[in-house]
Write a structure and sequence with these properties.
Elements: H1 9-71, H2 77-103, H3 111-123
Helix pairs in contact: 1-2, 1-3
Length: about 130
């Protein structure tokens, strides 16, 4: 078996290229794994929230209908429906605006992957050295 110092330059370069390719493959595997883990972790809570939203929509509709019937005792029904609908519309606008603003602050970076890429870049040979 030849000594490591006697290896041809082409063999060493092929090893370097192979190692670099393996690093890139590993990074992509890390991204896939991280995304998959986050999706699995979020699936059950999202389903519960979805069921809650549907139930809340029905409850909200019934409460709005009750408000219309209540106001219809002192106003014409069309005026009661107009007032309740207007208030509900303003509330919906406020909630949508708040949600949009808060959603824009969500951090979607993959922390583990970014840290790993930074570490690889730190150790990668730079052409100007």
């Amino acid at each position: 078996m030849p000594d490591q110092r006697e290896r041809p330059v082409m063999d060493v370069l092929q090893d370097i290229v192979g190692n670099a390719q393996e690093i890139v493959r590993s990074e992509f595997q890390l991204v896939r794994t991280e995304i998959k883990e986050e999706a699995i972790e979020a699936a059950k809570p999202a389903a519960l929230m979805g069921a809650g939203v549907v139930l809340a929509a029905y409850a909200g509709g019934l409460l709005l209908l009750a408000a219309v019937f209540g106001l219809a005792q002192i106003l014409p029904i069309w005026a009661a429906a107009l007032i309740v609908g207007g208030i509900a519309g303003v509330g919906a606008f406020v909630l949508i605006t708040l949600g949009k603003n808060r959603l824009s602050r969500v951090n979607l970076t993959l922390e583990t992957t970014v840290a790993s890429l930074k570490e690889n870049m730190r150790w990668a040979p730079h052409p100007n050295r």
